[in-house]
Amino acid sequence: MAASIPSSMLAVTHRPSNNNNKALALETLPVPVPAGPEEHLIRVHAVAITNGELRWPQPRQPADPVPGYDMAGTVAVAPPESPFPVGSKVYARTAFERQGSARTYSIALTGELGLMPRGINPAEAAAVPLSALTAWQALFVHGGFGEPAPAPSSGTGAPGTQGKSVLVTAAAGGVGMFAVQLARLAGVGRVVGTCGTTNVDFVRGLGAHEVLDYRAGPGYLAALGDERFDLVLDCVGGGTLAEAWKLAKSHGVVISVAEPAEAKRPASGVAEGVRTLWFIVEANSGQLGRITQFIEAGKLKTAIDSVYPFDEFEQAFAKAHSGHVRGKVVLGIADDV
């Protein structure tokens, strides 16, 4: 390991079984050492926090569980002939089975990394990979819609999208905001989003044809009348997911990124042939590269709800897990965020 890289670092750890009931803590841990032909050591600049990640099954890493799987940083150590050499500005969604990146240094694999889009800062970049990849895979891998044309061309329609419709719940959240934008870039004929009152204009600005305010009351979906959708992408779960089933048209699909949808299927009111699937987003450097092109072309934008300094990690995780954010909550690790 290069002499300029320290032997120890600060890291946020998540130990819910601690006797003092303080699950999150800032600890000093050894700097990880890259091993194998794919591993890069990344000097982390920023980490985006995903709502609910502290409730994911434990342990991720038995010895030192570190959260945070969306990051942006600079390559400090790279394997030979890597497309991301030392000094590259990168971002990534890293694998959930490894330690996360809420730490000064982290490990990312070649297949997880993308070059950080030009024109945005590390905090903005960290808010992209996990959410944008989830939306991409929901729409174009599992949802059956055709991918948008490569940037800068977009919005002209792709096979499997013209005349199609999609409903996105929590459209102002991390996954939802990218789903709305990507659906429009692919030429989906009708894109409807739901959100709270303060985010209606924001979601409309993302390109949604219609925006429904869930704070209008329990019957807010009645505004749709008899309209049904080819794809319902639910980012909320619970009762919202149960209602989502009734909004899919015959032989449509319900995709939930909050929880498996099958358990929420209502006993009645579901159209014939509606199917569902549950997936966990996969790291994909190629898809992330496509997303980067759209960001650099000004066709896709990210949003940050708030940025917290490293020593305010508890407040950052509490805000992210409140469920009421626009875009993502970001934890700044380096001083340049």
UniProtKB/TrEMBL annotation:
<dbReference type="Pfam" id="PF13602">
    <property type="entry name" value="ADH_zinc_N_2"/>
</dbReference>
<dbReference type="GO" id="GO:0008270">
    <property type="term" value="F:zinc ion binding"/>
</dbReference>
<dbReference type="InterPro" id="IPR011032">
    <property type="entry name" value="GroES-like_sf"/>
</dbReference>
<dbReference type="InterPro" id="IPR020843">
    <property type="entry name" value="ER"/>
</dbReference>
<dbReference type="InterPro" id="IPR052733">
    <property type="entry name" value="Chloroplast_QOR"/>
</dbReference>
<dbReference type="InterPro" id="IPR002364">
    <property type="entry name" value="Quin_OxRdtase/zeta-crystal_CS"/>
</dbReference>
<feature type="domain" description="Enoyl reductase (ER)">
    <location>
        <begin position="19"/>
        <end position="331"/>
    </location>
</feature>
<dbReference type="InterPro" id="IPR013154">
    <property type="entry name" value="ADH-like_N"/>
</dbReference>
<protein>
    <recommendedName>
        <fullName>Enoyl reductase (ER) domain-containing protein</fullName>
    </recommendedName>
</protein>
<dbReference type="Pfam" id="PF08240">
    <property type="entry name" value="ADH_N"/>
</dbReference>
<dbReference type="GO" id="GO:0016491">
    <property type="term" value="F:oxidoreductase activity"/>
</dbReference>
<dbReference type="InterPro" id="IPR036291">
    <property type="entry name" value="NAD(P)-bd_dom_sf"/>
</dbReference>
